[in-house]
């Protein structure tokens, strides 16, 4: 296992709708750490909502801003970072996040994805898109992660279990 100390960031990666934001907040609260969400930072930094960035400037520009934001965020120490699902598409992002961070793949296999609002998700319009995206990205998430947290109905997320697997 990695040497975990108070300066190490915990970085949550995984698919959209896997719970990175929710779990990031929970973990930060439980460990009394600061929490940062890269998508929120991107919106603050660009003064635009994510769908607007995609619409006005395209995905490539979004990825550029995302990388700039990672460049700033990864310099923090001892915080919890929830990332956007596509952060793994740029290897430099991962290298930076790994410098002082433990990368945790939130692999959420629960299937109760009902009533999803896709309007603010520029890359996915339906459940089939999510399925295809997961098939493509799952190997990448697995490859870059230090720890994979599998969550399903029989194995729900708990901060205690999370703690055990990290420390
Ligand atoms: C993206 C996921 C989104 C957001 C953007 C692109 C992706 O974040 O960064 O729409 O490529 O998977 P969430 O994973 O928080 O939905």
TrEMBL record:
Kindly list the positions annotated as binding substrate.
39, 63, 85, 137
User: Where is this chain's protein located in or outside the cell?
Assistant: Cytoplasm
Superkingdom per UniProt: Bacteria
Can you tell me which residues bind Mg(2+)? 21
Residues binding ATP are 17-22, 121
Subunit comment for this entry?
Monomer.
Main role? Catalyzes the specific phosphorylation of the 3-hydroxyl group of shikimic acid using ATP as a cosubstrate.
UniProt lists the family membership as follows: Belongs to the shikimate kinase family.
What is the protein's name according to its record? Shikimate kinase
Q: What is the lineage of its organism?
A: Bacteria, Bacillati, Mycoplasmatota, Mollicutes, Candidatus Izemoplasmatales
Query: Which span of the parent protein is shown here?
Result: 245 to 411 of 416
């Amino acid at each position: 296992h990695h040497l975990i100390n108070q300066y190490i960031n915990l970085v949550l990666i995984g698919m959209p709708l896997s719970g990175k934001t929710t779990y990031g907040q929970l973990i930060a609260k439980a460990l009394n750490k600061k929490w940062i969400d890269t998508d929120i930072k991107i919106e603050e930094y660009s003064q635009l909502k994510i769908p607007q960035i995609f619409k006005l400037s395209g995905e490539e520009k979004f990825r550029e801003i995302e990388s700039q934001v990672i460049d700033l965020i990864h310099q923090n120490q001892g915080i919890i970072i929830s990332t956007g699902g596509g952060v793994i598409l740029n290897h430099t992002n991962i290298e930076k996040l790994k410098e002082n961070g433990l990368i945790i793949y939130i692999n959420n296999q629960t299937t109760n994805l009902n009533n999803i609002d896709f309007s603010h998700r520029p890359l996915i319009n339906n459940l089939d898109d999510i399925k295809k995206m997961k098939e493509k990205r799952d190997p990448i998430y697995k490859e870059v992660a230090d720890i994979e947290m599998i969550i399903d109905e029989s194995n729900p997320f708990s901060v205690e279990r999370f703690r055990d697997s990290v420390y």
